[in-house]
Amino acid sequence: MPATPSIKKQLKFALYTSPVIGALAITPITIMDRYSPDKWLASVLSIMTLALVLWGVNILLWRWSKETAIKRYVLSILINGVLAWLVSMFVFHAGHHSTFFHFHLILFLSIDTVILILQDLIVTREKKAAIELENQQLRLKNMEAANQQLKQQIQPHFLFNSLSTLKSLMTVDTKNAEEYLVRLSEFLRSSLSSHSLNLIRLDDELELCVNYLEMQKIRFGKALQFEVHIPEDWRNTYFLPAFSLQQLAENAIKHNILTADRPLRITISGQDRTITVSNNWQKKEGVTKGPGVGLANLQERYRILANEDIVIHATDDVFSVSIKALEYESSDH
After folding, report:
1. Residue 212 lies in a domain
2. 144 three-class SS
3. Residue 194 pLDDT greater than 70, yes or no
4. Residues 186 and 266 occupy one common structural domain
5. pTM metric for this prediction
6. Considering the domain boundaries, does residue 149 fall inside one?
7. Which residue segment(s) compose the domain that 184 sits in?
8. Least confident of 88-97, 167-176, 242-251
9. Most exposed among 73, 84, 243, 289, judged by the fewest C-beta atoms under 10 Å?
10. Residue 40: its pLDDT value, please?
11. Alpha-carbon span 134 to 179, nearest angstrom
């Protein structure tokens, strides 16, 4: 049978730790003048070889009895006792009551105990990593399912409002109606090309967000103002979760008062690889406190995709959300 990833990790760890075990076992004895320095290297190589053998024995036992740790420990101790006796009898020609046998028995069992501890640490860490990966994949699937459900609920409502706005504009302002239709078609095109992606290029996300805001500006007139200040070299370098900026802009419009006398001002700016969407806070009555479903969803997406948190900052006058501009290669998309 081919070696499993866990066995490969154990074998790799055995190669790393065996020389260390050899040096740690012999160096104190050498310092105490029990071994001469010229025999130090040969002694280290001998203990290193022993450690490799014991690693091999314990890896075979682990493969044979993965689910029964006690059985593996007992068998490992018995095998080490037999090996210590064989070395004493046939290498040093000493009986099982001799000091040589006791020395080798303690040596074998000490090295074996260290190996068993290291082996269990490797296996435990691998199991923990596998569980975390599985949980992360489940969260990602749940997030994608929630996103799809949210889109199915929002898109008909968005289209209905957009078509109603377009119908109203066609009767009073054909030029703005034409501009609104162009923005709507661009927004829908971008939405369709991005809906299946976790990360999209910053330039594409900005285009989608600007099209959305331009549509809303045509709809609300002077009640809505926005500015975009993103370095040009960022646009084709960094990535964002799909619909992240658009969602933040939509939240600002949804939760704030927009009138010609009290216009909503949205600013999208970038600094130190952080993009901030801020607006003057003119909270509508009846809006509940807290981050809300949209921001909670964006927070979870950032944690899964890049192990990052979004930063929400609110004062009496300004509300802002800051998100990290991501490098595609460093994300877990």
Report:
1. yes
2. helix
3. no
4. yes
5. 0.54
6. no
7. 173-330
8. 88-97
9. 289
10. 78
11. 47
Is the model's pLDDT at 307 over the cut of 60?
yes
One-letter amino acid of 29: I
Same structural domain, 28 and 119: yes
R_g of the chain, CA atoms, integer Å: 33
- Tens of pLDDT, residue by residue over 85-96, are 887 777 666 655
Non-local (6+) Cβ contacts of 224 within 8 A are 213, 216, 217, 253, 258, 263, 264, 266
CA distance 245 to 241: 9
Cα–Cα distance measured from residue 300 to residue 198, given in angstroms and rounded to the nearest whole number:
12
Q: How far is CA 27 from CA 12, 50, 102, in A?
A: 24, 16, 20
State the amino acid at position 74 in one-letter form: V
| Domain annotation covers residue 145 | no
Q: Does 274 reside within a domain?
A: yes
Q: Are 123 and 95 in contact (CB under 8 A)?
A: no
Six token digits for residue 291: 């981050």
> 13 and 91 in one domain?
yes
Per-position DSSP letters for 8-41, written without gaps between them: HHHHHHHHHHHHHHHHHHHHHHHHTTSS-GGGHH
CA neighbor of 44 nearest in space, from 30, 54, 65, 61? 30
Number of structural domains found in the chain: 2
